[in-house]
Amino acid sequence: MTTLWIFFIFMNMDGFLKIAVCKETRDQVLIITPTTQEQVDILKNVTSQYETALWQPVSPVYMKEQAEVHLFVPGESFETVTSLLQDHDITHRVSLPNVNELIEMQTMNGTDPRSTSTFYERYHRLEDIYDWLNRTAHDNPRTVKTILVGSSHEKRPLYALKLSFSDRPNRKAMWIDCGIHAREWISPAFCLWFVHHSLSFYNYNKEITDILNNMDVYVLPVMNPDGYKYTWTTNRMWRKNRAPSHNPKCVGVDLNRNFDANWCTEGALPYPCSEIYCGAFPESEPESRAVADFLRQHKDSIQLYISIHSYSQMLLFPYSCTLEEAGNHNDLLEMVQEAARKIRTFYRSTYKYGAGAKTIYLAPGGSDDWAYDLGIKYSFTFELQDRGEYGFLLPPSRIGNACNEALTAVKTIALKVMEKTQAPKSPAAV
């Protein structure tokens, strides 16, 4: 009889396991809309008391009535969080029920460093990006140079590529940085895409050829390598760098609140546990200090600064740290307006545009504001796809479209900058 019971249990084990799996609650993303200040306060408490990750807005300080909140909720907290929302009649729905599958999709084949036709339509581990940097410079010795800008808190190198298609002295330049926030994987993917497009279509595409004939381009694919590495190994939702603080439970500084542009005023916080922690002082972090030092050294040649982020589909310019308008506000507005128009025409995607503080919210200590105050008067932040459907978990199948939209904006704005800054040609002699 005992033998029969063992046989019965063994034969039905597969069914037992399937039932257990079905009952398991997976990580999910909720879209929540608080309608009263009381609901806003409850939601702020939920995000601080439970293991969740705010996607939008980035911090509870930005929550307000009638504004959507996108909240990542791990499986172990899901029932508790949703019960609390229901108890207080807070409107919510599941936006992404399959977070784990999306993450698996993003990391699939991510370790393959070989250059293939689909290489640029996948996300890649930090080590593979380093390998790509070295191979790109090695394969294009006349036009591409690797530059060590600095190193991270955990001593990982900050490598940039310099694309230069002319030996003419005193050439002007543009700077593009990606991956300042670790979880925004589409951002480093764009930096790789941009370099690949530039090298592949020089002399074939008129726009990129005109840009590269007139400007050098610096591209930093991963400004926050420690955080980016951490998103691949430990916590996909990590945002900040990995610098420890006096509180052992709170790690990391928001590098885009760490620059000296109205540093740590409204829109940033001095608390190490916050996602918008500004750091101990401006440029306290080796990553932001390295970029700032490089830009200071090259401020006379760099005319255009672009920082790539996600998500929300926005083309932003200074200021984000104050509601005051930049001196050349109208020029900057004209550029992003034209870029958004072209994206809508070519790809049918809508991008909001404008000064950061008025378009989103106050966000002091940002790299674009700091670069603008340094003297780089054409300074921008791009927020790539999407508008919340997948958020930070944009599937690999969307990389190409997202990068082409951003590429359209970069080329449109770079050509406008050239048009406004090139010295007028001397009239021909008669």
Automatic annotation (TrEMBL):
Record has Hydrolase as a keyword: yes
Signal peptide as annotated in the record: 1-22
Record Gene3D superfamilies: Metallocarboxypeptidase-like, Zn peptidases
Annotated GO MF terms: metallocarboxypeptidase activity; zinc ion binding
Keyword Transcription: no
GO CC list: extracellular space
Pfam families reported for this sequence: Peptidase_M14 (PF00246), Propep_M14 (PF02244)
Name used for this protein in its record: Carboxypeptidase B2 (plasma)
Organism expressing this protein natively: Oryzias sinensis (Chinese medaka)
